[in-house]
Amino acid sequence: MMTLLVPLVPELPDILRVSAEDSQWAVTVTLLTAAVATPIFGRLGDLYGKRRMVLIVLSFVLLGSLIAFFSHELAPLIVGRALQGTGLAVIPLGVSILRDVLHRDRVGPAIALVSATLGIGGAIGLPLAAVISQFLDWHILFAVSGVLALAGFALVWRFIPVSTLRAEGTFDALGAVGLGIGLASLLLGISKGSGWGWGSPATLGTLIGGVVVLVLWVLFELRSRSPLIDIRVAARPTVLLTNLASITVGFTYFASTVVLPQLLEASTATGVGLGQSMLVSSLCLMPSGLVMWAMSPVAARLIAARGARTSLLLGITIIAVSYLLAVFLMSEVWHAVLIATLVGFGVGFAYSSMPTLIMGAVPSTETAASNGLNSVMRTLGSSIASAVFGVVLASQLVSAAGETTPSASAFQVSFAVSAVAAVIGVVFTVFIPKHHRPYRSASLPDADDRG
């Protein structure tokens, strides 16, 4: 769902007969609804059943796919993509379901595998979307997403048992509205800042307004008897530092899925780009997602032997080294494939460990909500990366033979910034407590790190 329209973005203005800036809303709205819906559906899952919420989310994705399939204008496409954005909530809900229905000894490997499906979705989805965009009617993209949502709904209905572990309390509707407004404003300002201008009233208003609303939201949640997200739990060192590290992982993973394709597809006329087609570029990134999946059992064994903190530290360290290499290796196609694959290794270890760290430090009744917040942190990292790389790549351009591309130094700066972000993630991870006092009813009672 997140990469569905990526290959089609350059053609959207002509297809929809709108400006390039307006067409970006078809991508931006998915990010916004994903960020807002994920923690809300997580809390609803804790209260009223995670399986039920997964089915509702998949219904929204199916409805969004149908609306987008029949759309020929921007407005209905935005509505459809907004509904599809709720699909990201399936990941933390699914991870939380594993905790409820599997034996304790099987939870770790299952979490690692489900977390790795994020990579599989991109590895398979991006080339598939590129083929459809290049050779078929673009509406088929949404037919495929609708079929997948319908198949997912049927499989969850048939095989996933009803959740029996429920939290007490009521749904904090006012808190949900406050979080939605705050996150949407903040992410909107970050994602649209380059187009609106970072000093424009619209950008400053959304950014400052979002921060103010989130501060007020935190104060409100601290006084709520049944908060949407328990701020005191979220402030525990293990949870807080894991979420901060998640921002850096989201930032660096986004770089591999956006900066590397631009390098691969940029014209060779300027002496910078590698001149590959959209399809070839997608295939070059495929090993990254496949490696994330292949590493899931390895990460699970490492977590069982040395703890989730060690797995996260290893993963972010690999990411940092990958981008340091990228600063010097960017002149051949195989360089891009190597960097993407190495980043996939690192992200695979990192994604597999974060849910385990979170669930080991939160009450069992807040599993889905806490995982949802962690997912939002990754989305926030991706949004910040989008803004940063948009500025960096657009500020340093070279032209030759009628072609304009980002300069070599622009790509090198992007990779260097990604390496620095990963190093910051390493610092956050180092300070995650090796041991902590678990809740009596912790989600993973035996999840304390041993290394």
Q: Work out the helix count.
A: 17
Identify the strand order in the major beta sheet. Answer: 1-2
CATH topology of the largest domain: Growth Hormone, Chain: A
Q: Estimate percent helicity.
A: over 70%
What share of the residues does DSSP label as strand, in percent? under 5%
Main sheet overview? 2 strands, antiparallel
Instruction: Calculate the terminal CA-CA distance, rounded to whole Å.
Output: 36 Å
- What's the architecture of the largest domain, going by CATH? Up-down Bundle
What is the residue-mean pLDDT, rounded to a whole number?
84
Q: What is the tally of beta strands?
A: 2
Number of domains: 2
| Broad CATH class of the largest domain | Mainly Alpha
Write down the oligomeric state. Answer: single chain
Radius of gyration: 21 Å
- Poorly predicted regions: 445-451
What's the CATH superfamily of the largest domain, by name? Answer: MFS general substrate transporter like domains
